[in-house]
């Protein structure tokens, strides 16, 4: 119990210790990481070689002495990921691009604009690390949940930040990857709906020039559904928000549309495996 309480206290100290300052290209595996106190990761003298000794911060009267805790390797990695997530947020709040982006999620042009993506969805000074998890089914197994108040919906939104086991630790984020694809996908989808082009939409969604009957049927049902709206002219609203998923799928996105006679409706996008597609009526929850 003392260990759990000490870990919780240290997590609170760690989360609150950062201020807006330029990100530095310092490997996160250094022997020490300076916050308001210090954190040292050192092999323990015990027979369990997977354990580490962690010195907790001694500041503000919250710790009378530098207590030593025995942490498992997984617990030490969770702290390491928490630090990386906090550095990611700190860079964004300083108006900078976070360093050490994973090549696995790089765009075709090599660019990853994390700053633009998070500014689009969040009120930046509300961002914080809300959780750290391990998902062994992922190529990047460490999940750091980033939360904050949405820019257009004044409620908490969450997005997953994934980290790998590399040195230095590298991040990937579906929000950053899919952000440039959202506007293109909405525009193209509206074009197919406006033209009532079931075959073209089915081919695009399936990725095949000869889509099967099931996808064509679903597309026709969707086109019939949207004929209730006058899509000759539309206004694409700014109120874009995240549709949260679980650990196994990327987030989705929902956007408001106003048709030519002033009626509002939403289009939802689903994302995964590098693709961003509209959600058909049959797929809607």
The secondary-structure element order is HEEEEHHEEEEHHHEEEEE
Main sheet specs: 5 strands, antiparallel
Low-confidence spans: pLDDT under 50, at least 5 residues? 1-13, 21-68
Give the structural class: alpha+beta
Strand content: 15-25%
Oligomerization state: single chain
User: Helix content range of the residues, please?
Assistant: 25-40%
Q: Helical region count?
A: 6
State mean pLDDT (0 to 100 scale).
77
Integer tally of domains: 2
List keywords for this structure.
2 domains; 285 residues; 6 helices; disordered N terminus; single chain; 31% helix; 5-stranded antiparallel beta sheet; 4-stranded antiparallel beta sheet; alpha+beta
Walk me through this protein's architecture.
It is a single chain. This protein is α+β, with helices and mostly antiparallel strands and 285 residues long. The chain folds into two domains: 2-172, no CATH class; 177-283. 31% of the residues lie in helices and 24% in strands. The chain is built from six helices and 13 strands. The protein has helices spanning 2-16, 73-93, 114-121, 174-195, 198-206, 213-226, and strands at 32-34, 38-43, 52-55, 68-71, 128-134, 142-149, 156-163, 171-172, 235-236, 241-243, 252-258, 264-272, 275-278. The strands form three sheets. Strands 9, 10, 11, 12 and 13 form a five-stranded antiparallel beta sheet that branches. Strands 1-2-3-4 form a four-stranded antiparallel beta sheet. A four-stranded antiparallel beta sheet has the order 5-6-7-8. A hairpin with an 8-residue loop joins strand 2 and strand 3 (52-55). The longest helix is centred in the middle third of the chain and has 22 residues, at 174-195. 26% of the residues are buried. The model is unreliable at 1-13 and 21-68 (pLDDT under 50).
